[in-house]
Description:
Elements: H1 6-18, H2 24-37, E1 42-46, H3 53-61, H4 65-71, E2 73-74, E3 79-84, E4 91-96, H5 107-114, E5 119-125, H6 132-144, E6 150-155, H7 184-197, E7 206-210, E8 212-213, E9 224-225, H8 227-237, H9 242-247, H10 255-275, H11 282-299, H12 306-316, H13 318-334, H14 341-372, H15 379-403
Amino acid sequence: xxxxxxxxxxxxxxxxxxxxxxxxxxxxxxxRDARARMPVPVLWLLGKTQAGKTSIIRALTGSAAAExxxxxxxxxxxxxxxxxxxxxxIVRFLDTRGLGxxxxxxxxxxxxxxxxxxxxxxxxxxxxxDQTPVFEVLQTLRRRHPHxxxxxxxxGLHELYPPxxxxxxxxxxxxxxxxxxxxxDLRRALAAQRQALGALAGAAPLRWVAVDLTLAEDGFEPxxxxxxxxxxxxxxxxxxxxxxxxxxxxxVRDLYASTAxxxxxGHAVAAAGLGALPAVDLVAVSAVQAxxxxxxxxxxGQRWERRMATEFVGLVGAGVASGFLAxxxxxxxxxxxxxxxxxxxxxxxxxxxxxxxYALGKAAVxxxxxxxxxxxVDAEALRAVYAEALERxxxxxxxxxxxxxx
Length: 406
C-alpha cells in the first residue's frame, strides 16, 4: 500500500457513514471468518433457577437486569445465550436454566454447551443446601474434560446475615485468618457447600468465591459486594484481559461514556478480526466503523446527517487516516519478510484496524458529547483524543491478540 491510499480510506469511511449501503451478506460472511480467528470468550453459567446468574452478568457488564432479560436468545430447550454488547460482542454468557427442575434432563444442554464454553462458572445460592443437580453436572463435565477449570460462585450472602447486619468490611472470604468474622450460620452454609461438592475429577483448578450482588434498592452497600474478588478469579482462570476490555480507562467517567466504551471495544475487536483476514479490503473495515459511529450517535440522541458528518470529518482531519495508513503500510512491508512475514502482517493488520476503530469511536464520543451539551468542539482537542485513543486501542488489541481465548 502506498501513501496515496489514505484518501481512499477516508472517502470510503465517509461514504459508509453517510450512505450505509454495503453488501450485508458479504460483510456478515467476512465477520464470521473474522470471529473464527478471534473467538468471543464464553462463560457457561450453571445453576438452579434464582441462583443469581443474571446478577452476575449484570455486575460484570454493568447492564441493567431488564436489558439482560431482553437480550437472551434460546439455543436449546432450556439453555440460552447472551451477547454483550449485542451487535459486536466482547463476551458471551451461556445460561443453563433447568437445573433442579422436575423431569429436567441436562444431556442436551451439556452436549451443546460443552462445545461452546471456555470457562465453567457454577452459581450456588448459599442458603440453598440442595445443590445436587449442580454437583452432578460438574462431575460429569470434569470426567469428560479433566483439563477444564471451574469457578464456583456462592451468592446471596445477606440471606444468612443476622437481623440488621450488613456486609463485613473488608471482604473476608478469601482470607482464612478472617474466617472467624463471618456470621456462624453463613460460615456453616459456605463450608457445607464446599464440602458437599468434594473433589472433582481432573487436575485443573477449582476455585471458590463468595459474592452478594444486589440492586441499589435492596439497601446493601456496596451492591456489588465481592465483585473485585470475582474478577480476580476470572482473570486467574482465563487470560482474556476481559476486565480491562469491559472497564475502560480513566476517561470513562459517566454512564454515556461507559456504555459507549463497550460498543467501541466490541466493534474494535470485530474490525481487528477483519484486519487479520488477507482478502478483506478497506470496505469491510469502513462498514464496521460506520456501524459503530451510527450506534454511538443513537446513544447520544443524534444522527449523522450530512452537515454533522462533514463537520466531524473536517475536525478530525487527516490524523485518522494517516494513523491508519502508517499501520497498514507497516503491515504491507512486513509481509516481505521470509517465513514469518505473513503471520506478523496479519496481526499488524488486525492491530491497525482495531486500534483505528477504537480511536475513531473515542473521538466520536468526545464530538457527540460536546454537541449534546451545546458546547463547541475544539479541533485540536478532538485530534488529541484520537491520538491518545489510538495508542490505548493498540495496547488493548495487543493484549487481546496476545492472550487469545484459552
